[in-house]
Amino acid sequence: MPEFSASHVVWTSRVKDAFGTVVELEDEEGRVSDYSIESEFDVAGSSYAVLRAEGDRNAEPEIFKIISGENGALELVTIDDDDEWENVSELYDELTFPE
Fold first, then answer.
1. What's phi and psi for 12, nearest 5 deg?
2. Rounded to whole angstroms, what are the CA distances from 92 to 23, 28, 35, 64?
3. Burial grade of 35 (CB within 10 A; 0-12, 13-18, 19 or more)
4. Could you give the CA distance from residue 23 to residue 55 in angstroms, rounded to a whole number?
5. What pLDDT score was predicted for residue 77?
């Protein structure tokens, strides 16, 4: 398993640079929702974006993996691997709420 350590985080802004501070995401039922980009970072050779439902500061942030799709376009995908999600989630908590 790659190292998910705060000392290995590189802050990025690729999604924000490509789409602005708010992105539209479509769920499995075809509903579109707006999300604010909280932060983006690279760690352990992968890229992640932390999003929050637009207009709801009390909503839990959601973490997505950033991948390059067809023609190099950026895509946000759900993290399906439980271990990867847990590691990234814990790392984000550590970065957001340092002890």
1. -130, 180
2. 20, 26, 18, 12
3. buried
4. 13
5. 93
DSSP H or E stretch at residue 17:
helix 14-19
Residue 51: its pLDDT value, please? Answer: 96
Tens of pLDDT, residues 19-43: 999 999 998 899 999 999 999 999 9
Work out the mean pLDDT of the chain and round it to a whole number: 90
What distance in Å separates the CA atoms of residue 14 and residue 61, rounded to the nearest whole number? 18
Model's pTM, two decimal places? 0.89
Q: Which residue has the tokens 């992640």?
A: 48
Closest CA to 12 of 49, 61, 62, 52: 49
Contact between 20 and 38 (Cβ < 8 Å): no
